[in-house]
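Appendix C reproduces, verbatim, an entry submitted by the partner laboratory led by Prof. M.T., so that reviewers can inspect both the input and the predicted structure.
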Amino acid sequence: MNPYTAIMLFVIIWWVVIFAVLPWGARPPENPEPGHAPSAPAKPMLIRKAVITTVISAVIWGVLFYLITNDILVFREF
């Protein structure tokens, strides 16, 4: 796997994981202010979710990197 492919694989995994992590802990405010969406989360915790996403993505990427570089998962045969 060349470096470009490795980076692009990580980016794709990261974006898939962020959409799975975003709803975690999202609670709408009890009394939304006028002009705000009533479904918007009160505390979105985006930095925390970005860190969690990066950790989960790194683990998934590491497993896939191992499988691809050791020819356990081969895409050229398809």
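The first helix runs from residue 3 to 21. Additional entries are available on request from the coordinating office.
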